[in-house]
Amino acid sequence: MSGTRERSAPDNRIPRSVWKVAVVVSIGSFMAQMDSTLVNVSLSAIGHALRSPVATTQWIMSGYLLAMALMLPLNGWLVDRVGAKRLYLFAFSTFTLASVLCGAAQTMEELIGARIVQGLVAGLLAPMAQMMIGRVAGKNMERVMGYATLPILLGPILGPVLAGAVLARAAWPWLFLINVPVGILGVTLAALLLAPDAAQPQKRRFDFAGFALISPGLAALVFGFQSAMHAEGAEFLLAGAALLAGFVWHSVRRPTTALIDVRLFADRMFAVPAVTQFFANGIMYGRQLAVPLYLIAGCGLSAAHAGWLLAATGAGMMASFACMGFLTERLGCRALAAGGALLALVSTLPFLWMTGHAFSTGLALASLFIAGVGQGTISIPSISAAYARMPKARLPVANTALNIAQRIGGPVATTLISIAVSLAVPSSSAAEPRQFLLAFAALCGLHLLCFAAAMLLPARVRRANER
């Protein structure tokens, strides 16, 4: 009898083919995260070396984000047209080559141009990890995403430390050149491990009119959010909103040929996870802006001290991601994501308290770790809910739409936090801890909105192939 029970028990092992995909996409995502972290903490050093003011140097990041926004809508069409493996190999190889161009740049203009090239291919590469895992993982989606994201979380932990070590021993170009061996490894493994594309990719016609509306619209919206404190910011926001409204009208009229079928957002099972992802990404980027500013400008901590404190957030996310499969099976999508959003909110309250009282390293460290734990339990349940009822043939289009919703959340949140900081901290005076009260209050508001969205997620999801 016991032998019969053992034979009839479900096999919960993850197939080797799924692990192969997870390994490959983890390397690509890790390199992108590492590159972003290295650049963020090194902008002042690069600007000083190339004798460029801050207004010019910040385009190393802004140009990258704008270029990414331009290319994100193309991902779904190119996957259908070219094939996932071919597109991944092209994007990963080009990203690695662009790292060489960044390291070889002699002027700020050349460096910004190389970063724009990186951003263009990153707009193709960024959404593919979720999509490629979603295609093969099936009922193991949460478990595989949890394991696959662990290497990605090393980027925010190792990035600041590695950037400091590189700049202490070598010139700034090595911040980009260290990507090259990782890129070569990733491209080689992708060529060897990823399954071949279909012999005849889908011949979906390219939506020129939609591309002319949505890509400039997204770029204008991102630039407008980043420039919200300046006069031109409102103009770009209005232009971006008008172009995106035009795309919605275009997509409703031609849903089968549009780059993104906006009817996806009429389905509550997709729209709610997309909104949750918007706010989840927003609170992550909002925290990454508010907390370092408070620690360094408000409390007078050194960059090295602040960096080690911020690493606690990455450690907390790693701790929660490792348990994603188990927790999702036990608690379900809604309870896990909403609980994570609530935990992240609770972890922000000590910073709100410290703005009016004494700073505590221990309290900050514990709060940042708990913030990471909470943050880590929001994304995967909501992504899983978005993909649950999606047929495999619709995954590329759905993945592109979900990533656009997710990545717009970052600029919106950082603009809100920047406005709060600017209102409270005059540029002509040194900052004080109490002046960051408004910034952390705004961050708490974003957490509440994320919690409200997560509470609308389905309690549990069943995949299309399980019904």
Report on the architecture of this protein.
The chain is mainly α. It has helices at 2-8, 16-40, 43-49, 54-57, 59-71, 75-82, 84-104, 108-125, 128-137, 141-169, 174-177, 179-193, 208-226, 231-253, 268-298, 303-321, 324-331, 333-354, 361-376, 379-387, 395-424, 437-454. It contains 22 helices and no strands. Helix 6 packs antiparallel against helix 21 and helix 15 (268-298) runs antiparallel to helix 22. The radius of gyration is 22 Å and the shape is globular. The model is unreliable at 4-10 (pLDDT under 50).
Number of domains: 2
How large a portion of the residues is in β-strands, by DSSP E? under 5%
Q: Structural class of the helices, strands and pairings?
A: mainly alpha
First-last Cα distance: 30 Å
How many E-type strands? 0
Give average pLDDT, whole number. Answer: 80
Low-confidence segments, ≥5 residues, pLDDT <50?
A: 4-10
Largest sheet data = none
Radius of gyration: 22 Å
Quaternary status:
single chain
CATH architecture term of the largest domain: Up-down Bundle
- What is the fourth-level CATH superfamily of the largest domain? MFS general substrate transporter like domains
In N-to-C order, the SSE pattern is: HHHHHHHHHHHHHHHHHHHHHH
Helices, by number, come to 22
Report helical residue fraction. over 70%
CATH first level of the largest domain: which class?
Mainly Alpha
State the CATH topology of the largest domain: Growth Hormone, Chain: A
* Shape estimate: globular
